[in-house]
Write a structure and sequence with these properties.
single chain; alpha/beta; Aspartate Aminotransferase, domain 1; Aspartate Aminotransferase, domain 2; 2 domains; three-stranded antiparallel β-sheet; globular; binds pyridoxal-5'-phosphate
């Protein structure tokens, strides 16, 4: 019998992967399953990005790179941040990582310990809480309410701070709600944090380029006052349809970048070289594919919201970012997780129950509209038939 450290008794996971496995199993058994469960674009990575990786391999980029990534890529990330947010980031503070998720792992590991409080969005990406629990820190949920357009209240967040708070995790545009935090709320939060320089902020902006109807993504990078304690999490997975490449980046504050670099040296040495050249082509090449994908997502977003609101007992706000809808299903008479499970098993539609994203997720399910308009329409018809049936 082996005894691992206590953290492994508390570590969680993403139920989206379990739903994907079950959906795949059912499909393998011959069932027609429509997958609205998984959070990854259904598009192929744009061709010029794929070509750049192939060229990098042909050109002999087969070895280790610096732990923080190749300099041209870090420079391109800094230039991209400047172009999009107006903020100056030094390539010396940029770190290329194997997927955006790795930055949350690193940041939570850096600050989490028994006796420490870490604030995180609820409902939110499940790995925040899982990693906080792993470290033994106290997870403090920041409520993300439908009545507040699925974003945090700065006032409520500031009230949750304790002398033990060391890290505050923010995510906008948000998974699983599609909420986008308005600039005014972020400004209020930043002002309220002025007298707490001991609190680091992890801003997960992986959906930062995915907003609709002209909604502004207000990057925390734009706030000079946070510069010495902001960790920016971003990457290529969603924007460029590159989830399987495992490529992400972070901007670390001066006082943490060397610690982050050492952690990388201890764990993965560097991100695989051809993927880094692909990431460089993504940032420096044409952006039309990104615009095309967003146009398609926007069209599906409208389809999903309209379809959901036509279902008995379901009401859905129009998400302003990412590619998720988070409808309220409390008037259907179903609990969220049994409903998600019944939709998969009986109607062949994979969705995720809201409680998989936190305690405030009860009463909601998450649908990812990273599937074709045709499949979305078929899924909505199946859901309608299912919900109209007497239980
Ligand atoms: N942050 C959020 C909010 C996400 O939804 C995801 C992926 O689903 C990630 C981070 C991780 O992205 P990556 O695939 O680059 O690790």
């Amino acid at each position: 019998m082996l005894t691992t450290i206590e953290g492994f008794d508390r570590i969680g996971e993403e139920n989206a992967f379990a739903v994907l496995a079950r959906a795949t199993r059912l499909a393998d058994e011959g069932r027609d399953i429509i997958n609205l469960g998984i959070g990854q674009p259904d598009f192929r990575t744009p061709e010029h990005i794929v070509e750049a990786a192939i060229k990098a391999l042909r050109d002999g980029h087969h070895g280790y790179t610096p732990a923080t990534g190749i300099l041209p890529l870090r420079e391109a990330v800094a230039a991209d941040i400047a172009r999009r947010t107006g903020a100056e980031a030094s390539p010396e503070n940029v770190m290329i990582v194997p997927g955006g998720k790795v930055t949350m792992f690193m940041a939570i590991l850096m600050f989490g310990a028994p006796g420490v409080d870490i604030l995180y969005p609820d409902p939110g990406f499940p790995i925040y809480r899982s990693m906080i629990e792993f470290t033994g820190a106290r997870p403090v949920p920041v409520p993300i309410r439908e009545s507040n357009d699925f974003t945090f209240s700065a006032e409520e967040t500031l009230e949750l701070l304790t002398p033990q708070t060391r890290l505050l995790i923010l995510n906008s545009p948000a998974n699983p709600t599609g909420g986008v935090t308005p600039r005014a709320e972020i400004e209020k939060l930043v002002a309220g944090l002025a007298d707490r320089p001991d609190i680091a902020i992890l801003s997960d902006e992986i959906y930062g380029q995915m907003t609709y109807d002209g909604a502004e993504h207000c990057s925390l990078m734009g706030f000079e006052a946070l510069r010495d304690r902001l960790i920016l999490l971003d990457g290529w997975s969603k924007t460029y349809a590159m989830t399987g490449w495992r490529l992400g980046y972070a901007v670390w504050p001066e006082q943490l970048i060397d610690k982050a670099r050492k952690l990388a040296v201890n764990a993965w040495s560097c991100v695989n070289a051809p993927a880094q050249f692909a990431g460089l082509a993504a940032l420096t090449g044409p952006q039309d594919a990104v615009r095309d994908m967003m146009r398609e997502f926007d069209m599906r977003r409208k389809l999903v919201v309209e379809g959901l609101n036509a279902l008995p007992g379901v009401s859905a706000r129009t998400p302003m970012g990412a590619f998720y809808a988070f409808p309220n299903i409390s008037a259907t008479g179903w609990q969220a997780k049994p409903l998600a499970s019944a939709l998969l098993e009986e109607a062949g539609v994979a969705v995720i129950g809201g409680p998989d994203f936190g305690t405030l997720g009860e009463g909601y399910i998450r649908l990812s509209y990273a599937n074709s308009a045709e499949n979305i329409a078929r899924a909505l018809t199946r859901m309608k038939l299912f919900l109209e049936e007497p239980q």
